Amino acid sequence: MTRKAVSASAKAPPIVKASPSKKAPPSNVYQPGPSERTVRGASGKIIDVPAGWVLLPPGDPMWTRRVKARAEHWLVQEKVGRKLFSKGLWAPSEVISAVKREIDEERSKVSYAVKLEKAAERRAEQQSDYVLEFEAEVARFLKFAPSYAGLEKRMATAIAAHATPVGSGTVARTQRIPVEQRAESAVIAWMRHQTTAYDGMKIPRQRGARREVRRELAAKSRFLLDRYRAGKPLMEDCPLRKALENLTRETVPPPGPSEPFVEP
User: Fold this and answer.
1) Which pLDDT value is given to residue 242?
2) pTM
3) 238 is in which domain, residue-wise?
4) Which of 101, 194, 208, 255 could cross-link 259 (Cys pair, CB 3.0–4.6 Å)?
């Protein structure tokens, strides 16, 4: 290699890889404005909604999808805490009206009603299967001693019934973690509300304070569960025993005067 070539290569600038940047929000997404027909842009600028546009409220995914695919539109979203809420979609009124007429016509047909009915049946079947699966996962996590097998079944059923309803927002409905982790978290959450004084606690409004309280209560709950797993005799004032006793009274007809709660 010649001296000239070496000199040229030495002066070549190093290759720098661009660091990944956060994805910019779409330009047609806005926040609610200070008045009815205004929106607020990403820069904070207040913008008037074009004349002839109307707001399509959220709640009908089919209607929203078709309007978005057919015409220029503005999405309105509002962030409250960590959650993002849709406030609707601004679009030309004639497009929104035309799409609504199409959808109404489709939904008036018998075939559409049958389609909806079958979809509802599939969802109900899937939900039923998931409830059973989740209950089994909860029971696997509890893993009580044989002497407490009946109590384990009762507790697993109660937690699954509480945690699995669609739209409940509980950990059982998330898909971000495996089902066995969902079951464990659901048990700890259920016990936090049913066997501790958490709901009545006055927790300081300090960063991390609530998380620390939950961590301490979770440790107590795990200690209590371990006693059931080991088959150890329990005191009459056991908080889990009391919680399940109350649950039994709420979900089944009350026993007669001479029929006390019996430990499984």
Assistant:
1) 86
2) 0.59
3) 113-251
4) 255
